[in-house]
Amino acid sequence: MALVLDVFRANQAPLFSIEPENSGDVVARERLLDKAMGPERHRKSSEKLRRGRVPSQGLAFVARGRDGRVIGTVRLWDIHAGITPAGQPLNALLLGPLAVAPEFEGKGIGAALMRASITEARRLGHGAILLVGDAPYYERFGFFADKTATLMMPGPFARDRFLALELEDSWLNGAAGMLVAAGRKLSTASSRKAA
Q1: Which pLDDT score, from 0 to 100, does residue 195 have?
Q2: 80 in Cβ contact with 112 (< 8 Å)
Q3: What span, in angstroms and rounded, lies between the C-alpha atoms of 138 and 132?
Q4: What angle do CA 159, 161, 166 make, to 5 degrees?
Q5: In the chain, where the domains are located
Q6: Is 158 within 8 Å of 135 (Cβ atoms)?
Q7: How far is 138 from 127, CA to CA, in rounded Å?
């Protein structure tokens, strides 16, 4: 399914659109993330789960401005959210990073990216989304820290910023342990092109 969402203001051209990310967006996305998140973004615990992987199939989105340039981005990644009480890895998604170009903040772009990614993850049958972020922002989308109390990130993290949204009721019940990357690996040829 090709998700395209145009966001309008009355009697005007779309302010921005939410679209699936494509291979031509790589450079613009990376520049946006550097600008919005700074050079320390590669040292975060979440990055350890993303490194050398590709986003979950169909769950990488960009926001495009009226001129077609990338002004926002969000990606979701396949992970194992610890193990179930039966000792099986529990499939889930890790969201991030979510970023909007600083000059476009406050226009609803981040919220539109969040809604699009949650809606598509639910449609694709995923059970839960986890993230590390500001609780006051993400709580409005249904993310809370109580669902991650028995889970750990691989590296330092702030417990009160480690949040989850269950797309299926009780998906994370009984899950415990370390988050582990589970997604498709980035091929060597692809990683050279992306660098």
Answers
A1: 40
A2: no
A3: 10
A4: 100
A5: 5-194
A6: no
A7: 18
Tokens read off for 36? 């919005």
- Comparing C-alpha atoms, which of 173, 164, 166, 74 is closest to residue 122? 166
Give the per-residue pLDDT at 149.
96
Beta bridge partners of 81: 179
Question: Which tokens go with 84?
Answer: 């179930």
Query: What letter represents residue 127's amino acid?
Result: G
DSSP element (H, E) containing 118: helix 109-123
| Residue in 188, 139, 181, 189 with CA at minimum distance from that of residue 164 | 139
**Which pTM was predicted?**
0.89
Q: What is the CA radius of gyration of the chain?
A: 17
Alpha-carbon distance 118 to 97, whole Å? 14
- Can you name the CATH fold of 5-194? Aminopeptidase (3.40.630)
